[in-house]
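Here is the promised in-class demo. Please do not try to memorize the tokens; focus on the logic of going from shape to residues.
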């Protein structure tokens, strides 16, 4: 649904998905957990609807089929006014991730939620800009085309992350290049409010602060970028690959951070 319509009255909200919705890497001040776009979005909703009830069932590392099998039944049992569904990225990162197959699973999840009377807030995938991650750009684009068609067919609310140009700035991404920084999570929450017609006092399109200009010879700048890529590969890509070989997930044994539908 296009933004700018009537304000959606949401008294209860359940968020489903993976690390994006769990909130990595938007750490809470006590360092014991993550905040993320969904928490921020719920807080913005609660400013207009005191007593808003909110649950977040998302767990890092979850694939789309796992989200559908494990989180959907719990969300439906809560009978919320709104359910967000953002998943599929972990599938696309793997060699066998097929956008067409994923779209079928996603559409069935939307049908199941709507049949239970739950309006759905959908999210497209991000536009991957970093080296190596650019290799899946075509798959993400194909998946997004499916998601836009599903949103149109089922009249779901859709947050188009691909078109959020502010997220093309490297400052929107944490060191692992997969998860958003706190300010980027804030911008996604503002974009979700815009889609639902919820008035906010900030604009997600606001430009990033002007970066300090550092002039370096092209060869030196190229070398510095490659050194950064190598550090990323050692610190983040290699552990991810090891987990794939071992058949384990970063979310194994981690429970949802907010499993019950409770007031903020």
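The designed amino acids, position by position:
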């Amino acid at each position: 649904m296009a933004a700018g319509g009537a304000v959606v009255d949401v008294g209860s909200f359940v968020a489903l998905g993976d690390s994006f919705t769990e909130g990595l890497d938007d750490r809470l001040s006590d360092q014991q957990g993550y905040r993320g776009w969904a928490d921020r979005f719920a807080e913005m909703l609660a400013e207009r609807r005191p007593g808003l009830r909110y649950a977040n069932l998302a767990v890092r590392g979850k694939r789309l089929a796992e989200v559908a099998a494990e989180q959907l039944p719990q969300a439906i049992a809560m009978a919320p006014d709104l359910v967000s569904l953002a998943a599929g990225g972990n599938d696309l990162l793997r060699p066998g991730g097929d956008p067409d197959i994923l779209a079928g699973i996603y559409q069935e999840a939307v049908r199941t939620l709507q049949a239970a009377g739950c309006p759905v807030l959908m999210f497209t995938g991000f536009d991957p800009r970093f080296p190596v991650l650019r290799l899946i750009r075509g798959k993400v684009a194909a998946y997004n085309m499916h998601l836009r068609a599903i949103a149109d067919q089922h009249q779901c609310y859709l947050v188009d992350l691909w078109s959020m140009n502010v997220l093309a700035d490297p400052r929107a991404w944490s060191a692992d290049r997969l998860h958003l920084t706190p300010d980027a999570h804030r911008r996604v929450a503002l974009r979700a409010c815009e889609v639902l017609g919820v008035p906010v006092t900030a604009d997600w399109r606001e430009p990033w602060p002007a970066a300090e200009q550092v002039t370096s010879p092209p060869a030196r700048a190229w070398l510095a970028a490659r050194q950064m890529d190598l550090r990323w590969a050692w610190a983040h890509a290699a552990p991810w690959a090891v987990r794939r070989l071992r058949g384990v997930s970063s979310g194994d044994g981690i429970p949802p951070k907010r499993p019950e539908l409770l007031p903020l």
